Amino acid sequence: MQTQVLGYPRIGSQRELKKACESYWAGTSGYKNVLQVGKNIRQQNWELQKNLGVDLIPSNDFSYYDQVLDHSLMFGAIPQRYNAVAIQPDHAELDLYFAMARGYQRNGLDIIAMEMTKWFDTNYHYIVPEFYKNQTFNLFSTKVIDEFYEAKQLGIITKPVLIGPVSYLLLGKEKEAGFDKIDLLKNLLPVYIELLTRLKALGATHIQLDEPFLVLDLSEKEKQAYQTAYQQLRKVFPELNLILATYFGALEDNLELACDLPVNTLHVDLVRAPQQLEELIHKLPQEKTLSLGLVDGRNIWKNDFENSIAIINQATAALGKERVWIATSCSLLHSPCDLDNEKNEAVLTAEIKQWMAFAKQKVAELTTLKQLTNNEEATLAKDKLAQNVKAQQSRKTSPLIHNEKVKNDVANITESHDQRSNAFAKRRILQQEALNLPSFATTTIGSFPQTTEVRSWRAKLKKGSLNQAQYDQLIAIETEKAVRWQEEIGLDVLVHGEFERNDMVEYFGEQLSGFTFSQNGWVQSYGSRCVKPPIIYGDVYRPEAMTLKWTNYAQSLTSKYMKGMLTGPVTILQWSFVRNDQPRAATCTQIALAIRDEVVDLEQAGIKIIQIDEPAIREGLPLRKAEWQNYLDWAVKAFRISASGVQDETQIHTHMCYSEFNDIIDSIAAMDADVITIETSRSQMELLNAFADFKYPNEIGPGVYDIHSPRVPNKDEMVELLKKAALVIPKEQLWVNPDCGLKTRGWDETKKALIEMVEAAKTMRNN
Length: 767
Ligand SMILES: CN1c2c(nc(N)[nH]c2=O)NC[C@@H]1CNc1ccc(C(=O)N[C@@H](CCC(=O)N[C@@H](CCC(=O)N[C@@H](CCC(=O)O)C(=O)O)C(=O)O)C(=O)O)cc1
Ligand SMILES: N[C@@H](CCS)C(=O)O
Ligand SMILES: [Zn+2]
Description:
Blueprint: E1 2-4, H1 16-25, H2 31-51, E2 58-59, H3 67-74, H4 92-102, E3 116-118, E4 125-127, E5 130-131, H5 143-153, E6 159-163, H6 165-171, E7 173-174, H7 185-202, E8 206-210, H8 220-236, E9 241-245, H9 255-260, E10 265-269, H10 277-283, E11 289-295, H11 305-319, E12 324-328, H12 350-353, H13 359-372, H14 382-397, H15 404-411, H16 424-435, E13 441-442, H17 452-463, H18 468-489, E14 493-494, H19 506-509, E15 513-516, E16 523-526, E17 529-531, E18 535-541, H20 548-556, E19 561-567, H21 569-574, H22 584-604, E20 609-613, H23 628-643, E21 651-656, H24 665-671, E22 675-678, H25 688-694, E23 699-702, H26 715-728, E24 735-736, H27 747-766
Parallel strand pairs: 1-12, 2-6, 5-7, 6-8, 8-9, 9-10, 10-11, 11-12, 13-24, 14-19, 19-20, 20-21, 21-22, 22-23
Antiparallel strand pairs: 3-4, 15-18, 16-17
Helix pairs in contact: 1-2, 5-7, 7-8, 17-18, 22-23, 23-24, 26-27
């Protein structure tokens, strides 16, 4: 029996990679530092896994920005617009790579970044490959080979990880009409063959090919592509151990296809889809190995050893020990690095900490499970089993988890809880009368730059070198500056800037009961950006108001409307580590009631416009269409519960970024927010078509500029986008705003861009 890790976090346990990249981008350190930090992290990760006894240690799971972008660069899928990137010969590839990820606005060039979107149902974002009609591929970057060689030099023969050819193509987007991306397979396979040939020559014996699309609904053509791809690879490499990795769901109707593809090992996610084991045991051909994804890569709870042992025993009884591997359910990219770094009991109590495992602990769990299911070694690990059983028991029986009042409040939800008093058409009139906003009203999505300085105040508050009053004073000054500046440039609906928030989810989690935190549990969200998801361990309620103080303060500074700014229940759920002892829907409803209380409090304090952000509603969608409706029913209801406690005159906004709306537009409409602001600029307003086709009745703010890139847009391009929007949406319904919050941007670029944006709105009004 072997153990395998599908991928390890690559940001470094102290976010070293983030710091190196950001410093390189800022021009405060050189490219050599980035490369050296990357090298150190890879070495640490490999050695950690080796020391913990992992049999199959991944390589090429490292990335300086994103693994999908790495593949695009490896395969030479580089959009033409980057040809002109001004490059220095000795680090050309790195600059080109970052230009593709972040756009390029230097040396007289102004090139937009590639699109970014969510990685399946996670909070990780990948850079979408761009495919063109006559797309060719060639081996451009040798990253996977270099990293295999690097590990080999350290005495570790790794298992290179590649996104499989079919999933790579399906992750991409056709940028012009007239072809089907899946037909590019014939052009792409030769590059895989070249890569595998070189890896094999260097001594690679196992190759992990990630094919997560096998847990999604596939067309016949896509199924055929799987057969073509793997038959070809098998033909050329009869002796390589090809590991086909699936994760995030069940194979279902693709189970036979996956079982029959000519690979040596099939990896399946038994955390998300334990029910598929029985059928797999019967259908997996004799010569194949089954890799059991048992250790959860998507959550932070300790593995339940007794449960896992039972599954391993079931598999080995049917298949024999040689044909069963024990693995993480998916890459540990989605787990924080190391629970041992959580030393502050005031943040994470010992009682809750004993229930948890981060990436390093999960790797150790694999080895322990292997020992526990091996007759000769089982006694060596019996203490670990006893400790594990004790921890599971402690969690199941802890008084921290259940709260009768919360359960009663949920039980007492009635039909009126998710209904505004009147339909939008009536509310709209009342709101127009009450608010009297201009056409093409301008606003921003909430956050203003979270500068190093602002973050440093919070760090100082934590360390005690600033007291609460001093910290509050600094935040108040920053807020006032932001309010004054918004007034000055003529924005219509203002925001307070969210300076007091570490993160839009963590901030609320910190104030809600039933949540706890880590100090260092960072997980990569995109590029160098990380989040520290709060941990929901028990019933959720709001002990006291969460945003009133700063919203009231900001409103007191201005006679313009100040938007109340909240994160919605689905997003709080989706971007937290959640309980696995009750359905997600139950936790979401509890959060919805807490947010509803806050919305009502804001209204009572005189706030007339309240935004409830739900950027994660799309990403929470199950991967299989058959499960969508059930999810959408409870998710939309949770949003409506949070939004429906107010008078019709109060305008409820929601905001979503990174979302494809086509197939869920009726549910977006059912959320019935008075105004929805969405991310649309990187796709040149393409995403708006769903709203247009649906004849979406409520108001919409299509993002007019991309906030994920440092490039400053000009007025004319925003006018063009707004004109494009006005072609498909009645102009009375349109708002003008950026794609998302501005927390990741600097003040200089923010100011320039928003001044242009306000001008663009004026131009539209005068048209
Ligand atoms: C809108 N998005 C979000 C997603 N998920 C979330 N949970 N939150 C989101 O906002 N998913 C989709 C998108 C993804 N986008 C982003 C955008 C920006 C970030 C980001 O900027 N992350 C920050 C970390 C934010 C944070 O929690 N900061 C804390 C801690 C700051 C810190 O590191 N402090 C240092 C010391 C600093 C100093 O001394 O100067 C320390 O403690 O060591 C805070 O502000 O208090 C990032 O830096 O990556 C993420 C996702
Ligand atoms: N209000 C948040 C939404 C981000 S999705 C912000 O502005 O950052
Ligand atoms: Zn957003």
